[in-house]
Fold this sequence. Notes:
Elements: E1 2-6, H1 10-22, E2 26-30, H2 33-40, E3 47-50, H3 59-68, E4 75-79, H4 84-92, E5 97-100, H5 105-120, E6 127-129, E7 132-135, E8 140-143, E9 146-148, H6 152-164, H7 171-178, H8 187-203, E10 211-214, E11 218-221
Parallel strand pairs: 1-2, 1-3, 3-4, 4-5
Antiparallel strand pairs: 6-7, 7-8, 8-9, 10-11
Helix pairs in contact: 6-8, 7-8
Amino acid sequence: MKILIVEDDRTIAGLIAEALKQQQYIVEVAYDGQTALSYLETGAIDLLVLDLGLPKVDGITLCKTVRQKNYHLPILILTARDTNQDKVIGLDAGADDYVVKPFDLAELLARVRALLRRRQAAYLSCLRWEKLTLDPDTRKVSYNGEALHLTPKEYAILQVLLRNGSRILSRTQILDQAWSFDETPGEETVKVHLRSLRHKLKAAGAPPNLIETVHGFGYRLNPNVKSAI
């Protein structure tokens, strides 16, 4: 899952980003509100961690803009503004949670997980296709009960495919959802990771065409393999 941190304090942004990456989230960082809007327009962000005192576009304005544009993602405000009135303004602007600086990193991560669980409810608590299961909460993947040990990128690609089902995704679309913007892999990278992912699935007993290549278009989960959803 991809998280966007919008924080002009680079030390704090870096601390949060590193902690989230260790939890296998894909992380973007924007240091002003205008840049954040550009990231959000891609539609590939799952959660927003938002400071209020931002240059160019302030946090409250950004929060309201996200809701006005109907971007359906949870927003966690992270700010030094600690009065009850500030909290009311932030929540009324469309935030889902409000954390005051200085903050406990473990608590922040727990709140992130809680917000993402709510978002994942829209995708079902576990993602399934045929005998393949991915649990976003525990990050465990199995095929017919056998655990698959995936790299972070293999996991991210599989999660993207499971969320989209039989919808065909181009390599560019997979890159947008499974890589951060500051990573610059070529489209061939997607092919390499998919080859490894297919090999692991096949070794666990999955049909070799469970992930189907639609020549000239991209990849999808094979609709001719019965879905368990």
